[in-house]
């Protein structure tokens, strides 16, 4: 899409405005709506004239070279109160949707050429390759470049057939194969047309060489008014969910999605949020399953309404029963097992507290399960009565004197574990899950032995992408994904690695 712009020059421009530049308020030129940022450049020349030009913001945020129309000068003797117009300037206003469509068309053209080469090879590679059919399914607009590429590369004749009725196509293809013996190959651009070709080959006994294109993913960007929901659980004070939300919103911005990112402390509130998304016409939903029984009815209502639902973070054991198509999470059991192995490797024996800050959260219970399975001593699952008094309650528990080690299951709890141990005034080995600047310092200087990262940014980023993927699939996501699991295998992060991370945080991002 291109747009003509006329520069309007008023002859009463004040001297203070000469040479000034007015820029748009937007900070980016990549506007999904198709708008483009421009600014007018005015320059006073030594002979007294004022020259006008136009600059356009690039995709990287910088400004283009000045475009100068043919008629662009305001002379010193210009008449007052009379508007003057420059000649037009053509500005490229291709938006993100158009860019994606164009790039995909280029890809299809290239693939069509590659398909032509494979057919040519199968026909012996001679210059007089036999006649082929290229079948364009008009019910799937935008697929035509496949045939464009095939026609451009194939060494023999290609006859293009454009169809919209599959039954009419069936009859036409039967007649062609029975009457035209020169047809030796066919390429179908969709699965429905491929089905027809396959059936007609059998019916006519003309087993020509053929292939087809299967497009499982709709390559076009979704409409800006399509709502996507990512719903988490947990406290606003938990850094895990702060990083999670940041990552979801970042992913949505990169993908151009209208995202509703929320989190709630209870499964019942999460279920209500899922129902609101369903009622508001969401096209896809991602949710955690910290309390699977509470979420299951709402998730299944969304699925019944035709909305694909995936899950992330807690609930891997229950995802299939709840009915989500795909689950993305840390392997919580394996994470706990790795933590237990690390306690063993460091010579820690006796009795360990596994501090569970959300007792109803199945994923946290899984971490303690894994710890119990690998640790050589005993494991006690301990939870505070009130999150506001965690340090005081934990200090009281440690004061009984029978605890030989502690592990927190989030970065926030890890920091409070360290505070309680400090008040306990006894050296007690401790570790934690999660990452924060504070946790990094505690591990780097030895106040905590190690950390197991829970990667909220990976989980929520992939959950956002997964919701888009599920909605863009041209095949049923529930059956196709079939409750598949994408589990992150965690690793132990020691003092050396933490110091490296602290140094990188201080240095800041290194981008070209």
Report on the architecture of this protein.
It is built from 16 helices and 24 strands. By secondary structure, it is of the alpha/beta class. It folds into four domains: 2-94, no CATH class; 97-212, Response regulator (Rossmann fold, 3-Layer(aba) Sandwich), CATH 3.40.50; 227-330 and 457-489, Rossmann fold (3-Layer(aba) Sandwich), CATH 3.40.50; 332-454, Response regulator (Rossmann fold). It has a six-stranded parallel beta sheet with strand order 14-13-15-16-17-23, with helices on both faces. Strands 19-18-20-21-22-24 form a six-stranded mixed beta sheet, sandwiched between helices. The longest helix has 27 residues, at 96-122.
- What is the arithmetic mean of pLDDT? 89
* CATH-derived architecture of the largest domain: 3-Layer(aba) Sandwich
Q: Under CATH, the topology of the largest domain is which?
A: Rossmann fold
- Considering DSSP H and I runs of 4 or more, what fraction of the residues is helical? 25-40%
Q: Largest sheet, order of strands side by side? A: 14-13-15-16-17-23
Distance between the termini: 30 Å
- What quaternary form is this? single chain
The tally of structural domains comes to 4
> What is the total tally of β strands?
24
Determine Rg (CA atoms, Å): 32 Å
Shape: extended
Per CATH, the superfamily of the largest domain is Response regulator
- Largest beta-sheet characterization: 6 strands, parallel
CATH class of the largest domain: Alpha Beta
* Number of helical segments with 4 or more residues: 16
Low-confidence stretches: 10-33
The amount of beta strand, in percent, is 15-25%
Computed structural class: alpha/beta
């Amino acid at each position: 899409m291109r747009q003509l712009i006329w520069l309007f020059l008023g002859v009463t421009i004040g001297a203070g405005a000469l040479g000034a530049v007015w820029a748009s308020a937007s900070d980016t030129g990549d506007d999904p709506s198709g708008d483009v940022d421009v600014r007018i450049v005015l320059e006073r020349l030594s002979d007294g004239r004022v020259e006008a030009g136009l600059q356009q913001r690039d995709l990287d945020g910088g400004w283009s070279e000045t475009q100068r129309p043919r008629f662009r000068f305001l002379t010193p003797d210009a008449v007052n109160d009379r508007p003057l117009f420059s000649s037009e300037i053509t500005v490229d206003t291709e938006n993100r949707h158009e860019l994606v469509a164009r790039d995909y068309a280029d890809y299809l053209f290239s693939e069509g050429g590659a398909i032509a080469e494979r057919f040519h090879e199968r026909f012996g590679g001679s210059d007089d390759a036999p006649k082929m059919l290229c079948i364009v399914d008009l019910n799937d607009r935008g697929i035509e470049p496949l045939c464009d590429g095939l026609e451009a590369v194939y060494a023999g004749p290609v006859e293009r057939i454009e169809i919209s009725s599959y039954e009419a196509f069936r009859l036409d293809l039967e007649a062609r194969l029975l009457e035209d013996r020169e047809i030796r190959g066919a390429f179908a651009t969709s699965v429905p047309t491929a089905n027809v070709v396959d059936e007609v080959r059998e019916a006519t006994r003309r087993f020509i060489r053929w292939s087809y294109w299967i497009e499982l993913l709709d390559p076009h960007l979704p409409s800006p008014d399509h709502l996507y929901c990512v719903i988490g659980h947990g406290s606003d004070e938990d850094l895990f969910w702060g990083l999670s939300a940041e990552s979801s919103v970042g992913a949505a911005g990169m993908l151009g999605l209208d995202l509703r990112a929320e989190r709630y402390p209870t499964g019942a509130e999460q279920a209500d949020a899922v129902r609101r998304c369903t009622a508001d016409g969401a096209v896809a939903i991602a949710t955690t399953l910290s309390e699977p029984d509470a979420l299951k009815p709402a998730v299944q209502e969304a699925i019944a309404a035709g909305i694909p639902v995936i899950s992330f973070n807690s609930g891997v054991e229950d995802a299939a029963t709840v009915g989500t198509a795909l689950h993305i999470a840390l392997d919580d059991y394996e994470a706990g097992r790795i933590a237990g192995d690390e306690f063993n490797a460091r010579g820690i024996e006796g009795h360990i507290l596994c501090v569970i800050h959300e007792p109803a959260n199945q994923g946290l219970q899984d971490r303690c399960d894994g710890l119990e399975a690998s640790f050589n001593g005993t494991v006690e699952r301990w939870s505070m009565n009130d999150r506001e008094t965690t340090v005081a309650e934990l200090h009281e528990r440690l004061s009984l004197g029978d605890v030989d080690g502690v592990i927190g299951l989030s970065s926030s709890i890890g920091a409070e574990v360290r505070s309680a141990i400090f008040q306990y005034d006894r050296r007690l080995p401790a570790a934690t899950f999660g990452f924060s600047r504070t946790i990094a310092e505690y591990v780097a200087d030895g106040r905590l032995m190690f950390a197991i990262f829970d990667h909220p940014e990976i989980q929520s980023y992939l959950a956002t992408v997964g919701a888009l993927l599920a909605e863009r699939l041209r095949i049923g996501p529930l059956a196709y994904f079939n409750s598949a699991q994408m589990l992150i295998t965690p690793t132990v992060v020691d003092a050396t690695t933490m110091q490296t991370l602290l140094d990188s945080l201080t240095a800041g991002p290194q981008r070209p």
